[in-house]
Amino acid sequence: MYLKRFPSGYDCREVGDKAAEARAASGLGAVHQRMSGWSSALRFHQLDLQISTENGDKSGQARALANLGETYEGMGKTDRARELYEDFLQAAVTVNDAALKTRAYASLGG
Questions:
Q1: Domains of the chain, with CATH numbers?
Q2: In principle, which of 13, 29, 58, 69 could form an S-S bond with 84, CB 3.0–4.6 Å?
């Protein structure tokens, strides 16, 4: 994944860079998820989903849904995780991204 370098002190909220704000929320969610900080992970992944939805970023929505599913799965809430993985699959189909579709099917166990 290509990571764009930003100047020191770059504030995506201040300059209105919603895509960067969504990616930052996703990254923070992933960090909390890896540390089993489930409530914080959920909060950041939900923020990613909210921003991506507001911006019409279908790939961002797919990313957020996948991350939410993984978080719920880590919490042992497999029914909720499955619902989110199904939403993730629909988003992946919508953007017609083969890699996302493959990841979604793998998440669903297929």
A1: 18-107 (1.25.40.10)
A2: 69
